[in-house]
Specification:
The protein is built from 9 helices and 7 strands; from the N terminus they run βαβαβαβαβααβαααβ. By secondary structure, it is α/β, with parallel strands linked by helices.
């Protein structure tokens, strides 16, 4: 299958899972814009790798938790590409801690980026997608949004919220030709997970039937599938990429 000529936006796309998704979409022929709150210079390598695949690429700096930033993000995207066919809501942060020690600011920061950001970006993408009567939105949630996880009440709540949001919006706009699905990664090799203490990593491993961590590229494969014609009769779904962790 191909995504040739499609235009995609990947939030949190400079590195990690977001970068893997951007590269996979580009390998399928899609033009890709990556977004992050970080300086655009940090996306130079990602942009070079995307362009090497023979497609158009752009980096757009914006904080997805700020409505004005999101409006500017989509204005720049539309000015550059003309239409949006694919939105990947991948941007996310963690501020882990046990409930009794969790600061309200850490709770709010995670909810703002991980959930409010999905709301703002989806809202911005839905109107043009509905007008063109086509589009695919894929939200990156997490298995902890399904199972919960001690020390991650804020992160788990935000990711559970993404699942409920995905299902609700799929029902709202399915008749307009726009599909909304979610992918729930488990323990994936990224800089975020590399920073975890060894005892935490070992605890995760004990609960993974496949007895290994996932790779960003394995998440990207499933995300890309949800953007293709092969999945055209799928909406409101949550696909786990977790090695069986959430069984």
């Amino acid at each position: 299958m191909t995504l040739k000529g499609k235009n995609a936006l990947v939030t949190g796309g400079y590195r990690g899972i977001g970068k893997a998704i951007a590269l996979k979409l580009a390998s399928m022929g899609a033009n890709v814009a990556v977004n992050d709150i970080g300086d655009i210079e940090t996306a130079a390598d990602t942009l070079s790798e995307i362009r090497a695949l023979g497609v158009e690429a752009e980096a757009i700096q914006a904080n997805v938790a700020v409505e004005e930033d999101v409006q500017k993000l989509f204005a720049k995207f539309m000015e550059r590409f003309g239409r949006i066919d694919i939105l990947i809501n991948n941007a996310g942060i963690t501020r882990d801690g046990l409930l009794m020690k969790m600061k309200e600011s850490d709770w709010q920061a995670v909810l703002d980026v991980n959930l409010k950001g999905v709301f703002l970006c989806t809202k911005a993408a839905v109107r043009p997608m509905m007008l063109q009567k086509s589009g695919s939105i894929v939200n990156i949630t997490s298995v902890v949004g399904i199972t919960g996880n001690a020390g991650q009440a804020n992160y788990s709540a935000s990711k559970a919220g993404v699942i409920g949001f995905t299902k609700s919006i799929a029902k709202e706009i399915g008749s307009k030709g726009v599909r909304v699905n979610a992918v729930a990664p488990g323990f994936i090799h990224t800089k975020m997970t590399e920073a975890l203490p060894e005892d935490v990593k070992n605890a995760y491993m004990a609960n993974i039937p496949l007895k290994r961590y996932g790779e960003p590229e394995e998440v990207a494969e499933v995300v890309t599938f949800l953007c293709e014609e092969r999945s055209k009769y799928m909406t409101g779904q949550v696909l786990k990429v977790d090695g069986g962790m959430a069984l």
